[in-house]
Amino acid sequence: MTRRDLDLALDWAAAEGWNPGREDASCFFAADPEGFFVAEVEGRPVASISAVRMGERFGFIGLYIAIPEARGQGHGMALWRAGMAHLDGRCVGLDGVVAQQANYRKSGFVFSWNNARYEAERPLLEAAHHRADAAEFGDALLAYDALHAGEARPEFLRAWLEAPGHVARVIRGPDGALRGFGVLRPCREGAKIGPLFAEDAGHARSLLTALAAEHPDGKLVLDVAEDHAAAVALAREAGMEKVFETARMYTGAPPPMRREGVFGITSFELG
C-alpha cells in the first residue's frame, strides 16, 4: 500500500463499524511502512490487510477487509498469503472475529484469550488518587511499553504519542519510576483509550479518570482482555457496556508480556 491506500482501508474499517482513530493511518504506517497490502482489480482497490512487523520476532495481522462486492473471489486469500509471507519466521498475532477462529486455526493460529470492547457515552469515574503527568517519548517509556506489549515498537510509539489530538499521560512513583501509561485517541466516533498500562487497578483507574477528563463529551471506548478480571471490573465501574468481542490468537506461544498490567489494549489492528 501507499499511505493514501491506507486511508482508504481505514474508511473500509469505519464502514465495518470498527471506528478507527482519526490519526491511525499515520501512526500505523510509521510502525512498518512495508506491512500494508492492497488487492486491486483493474486498478481498483478491493481488499486490504496489514501485517506489521514489530522488533525482530513478532508481527500482527489486522485490517483484513474485502469490499462486499469483491468477497468470495479469492482476493482475501491472496492478500492473506502476502501478509503472512511478510511476517515469515515470526510469532504472529491477530484479533479476529470469534466466529472465524476455525479458519484461523487452519493457518496455524492458536486461541489465547478473548478481548472485548466496552464503551459508554459518559463514563462514571471517581476522582483520581494518583497524579497523571504528560508523557514524553524516551527510553523509560519505551521499555515500559515493551514490557506490556511484548516487543519494543519505537517508531509506532513515537507516532502514537505525537499524533494530533492524542493525549498521553503517565503516573510516576515517589522514586520517579513509571507506574502507569495511557493514551487517549480521538476516533471517527468519540475516543478510545489505549494503551492503558498500569501497576495495579488503582493506578489504572487514575489514568482512566485523567484521560477521560480530556474527552468530557462523546463516546469513550476501552478494549480489555476478557480474562483480566480487574480490567473488566474497571470498565464496568466506569459504566461501560460490552459491545463485541474478538479472539486473540497467535501462531505459537504469545510474546512475553506483563498481561496483568494491560488494563486497555492499544488497538485491535496492531495489538
Automatic annotation (TrEMBL):
Transmembrane segments: none annotated. Residues 1-125 form the N-acetyltransferase domain. It comes from Sabulicella glaciei. InterPro entries: Acyl/Acetyltrans_Enzymes (IPR052729), Acyl_CoA_acyltransferase (IPR016181), GNAT_dom (IPR000182), YitH/HolE_GNAT (IPR041496). The lineage of its organism: Bacteria, Pseudomonadati, Pseudomonadota, Alphaproteobacteria, Acetobacterales. It holds the Pfam family Acetyltransf_1. CDD domains: NAT_SF. This is GNAT family N-acetyltransferase.
